[in-house]
Automatic annotation (TrEMBL):
PANTHER family: CARDIOTROPHIN-LIKE CYTOKINE FACTOR 1 (PTHR21353:SF7), PTHR21353. This is Ciliary neurotrophic factor. The keyword Secreted applies. It comes from the Eukaryota. It is found in: Secreted. The keyword Secreted applies. Belongs to the IL-6 superfamily. GO terms for cellular component: extracellular space. Its main location: secreted.
């Protein structure tokens, strides 16, 4: 086991948006889940942008890979968010994709920022896993033609 990984639960946030009850999630309509996913990705994109900004000021030569990796993750989240927004528009949902502009200041030292980064990445992984089934269903991977999605201009 990775040293210290058993204590990572101490850093979990019980008010995390990823803690939506699984049973409740299963019984939600597709459009409700899509909106929750989209809102989560909008929030996570903002948090990732803040992480990239914080780490760009503090990268050491040994952490260049981390900074590049964070930028790649941010680009992927932005692309996924854009795809979800397009699907939502296609489904006729009214979606506000303007990011929350409230500026969240750094909470403390470098360790605190790394703990916050851990929380953001953990929440991101949860939402990606949670949204895969819905995205596949919406994109028609269950045998339905995807032609409507690819040919529809938004």
């Amino acid at each position: 086991m990775l040293q210290g990984s058993d204590t990572l639960k101490l850093f979990d946030d019980p008010t995390d948006s990823a803690s939506t009850d699984i049973e409740k999630w299963i019984h939600m309509a597709e459009d409700e889940r899509l909106l929750l996913n989209l809102n989560a990705f909008l929030d996570l994109e903002r948090k990732l942008e803040r992480m990239v900004e914080q780490h760009s000021n503090r990268t050491y030569s040994t952490e260049d890979g981390l900074f590049g990796g964070l930028q790649d993750v941010l680009a992927q989240v932005a692309a996924l968010k854009g795809q979800m927004a397009q699907i939502g528009v296609f489904m006729g949902l009214s979606i506000d994709t303007t990011p929350n502009t409230e500026d969240v200041k750094s909470k403390g030292d470098e360790f605190d920022e790394k703990v916050e980064g851990y929380r953001v990445l953990k929440e991101l992984s949860f939402w990606i896993i949670r949204s895969v089934r819905d995205m596949r269903k919406l994109l028609g991977y269950n045998g339905v033609e995807t032609e409507n999605f690819s040919n529809h201009e938004i």
